[in-house]
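Continuing the batch. This is chain 6 of the set; chains 1 through 5 are on the previous pages. Same settings as before, nothing changed between runs. Recording input and output for traceability.
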Amino acid sequence: MLDQLILFVASLAANFFSALSGGGAGLIQFPMLIFLGLPFGVALATHKVASVALGLGATLRHLKESHLERRLSLIILGAGLPGVVLGAVTILQIPERIATLSLGFLTLGLGLYSVFKPKLGLEHTPQNQHGAALIGGIAGLFVVGFLNGSITSGTGLFLTIWLIRYFGLDYTRAVAYTLILCGLVWNGTGALVLGMIGTVAWNWMPALLAGSILGGYLGSHLAIRKGNLWIKRSFEIVTILIGLKLILG
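Output for chain 6:
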């Protein structure tokens, strides 16, 4: 019962902040699973399955706002899902320390970039969604999908910043796309692949799922109520913390 309570509280906190900032649940949830005794591969698959519930909780809240456009949603899914599958298949072949260190510097860079771009993501100015410019956006989505399928800690943040920087979305819309499409569909695909080739600790799942759904809903609710500037600051704090955590180990 104590382990289940720890799992629930940690999952609730991790997914609350992830839903508020547009990613980063793995900062708390994934290392916690390893700390409690799961091997890396089992913790990876277990976290990926539980993270689908974050997408479910966020979806329940964000769909009320109708921020998602069908065309861009299909582009994100079509470009990102192949990367997710490729990343999930290859992750267990990549040295863990090299992967996490690289991701740490990239994630830290995201946070610092947003800090030094004070107007980034505060206005919705759609761009690069047609013609030749769209090809670059699709390539970026594939790379982000690969990272999502392979490394769990904070990769949703990459999709959030890509949607803002390249496609011109504001933070509120970008986070909605990330939590619903990445959290629910991308993570669901990665969970399916990792579940087939790896091992999931199913007896740990009830507490993780409950914390993920509740945390995802509450974090999304607060993000919608507070708006772009609040989400931007949350994004910057979470990315910098995740980057430092991955670098320092």
